Amino acid sequence: SRVQFERGFAEIEKGSGYLKLANGLLRGPRIGTTFQGTLYDPNNNMDMTGTFMPVYGLNRIFGELPLFGPLLGNGRDRGLIGVTYRLRGNANK
Hints:
This protein is mostly beta strands. The protein has one domain (7-88). The chain has two helices and five strands; from the N terminus they run E-E-E-E-H-H-E. It has a five-stranded antiparallel beta sheet.
């Protein structure tokens, strides 16, 4: 299946044999995610963390509510419901 995103960005640092991402965000009406970490290093290892937010279009409405929005919405580009994840290990696997 395919998922469309309306917005995506990240700070990228690329060097000899590594790629690091910071302050990453992908968001669309169905899902959203934040991410940061090392996508790969010279030993081809990955160490990424982030938060996956299902039904992102509906989920982030809570952040738009006056007065309670900053508390319920968990900040800009975040949602009320999210699953924190970590990807760590060999990038090929």
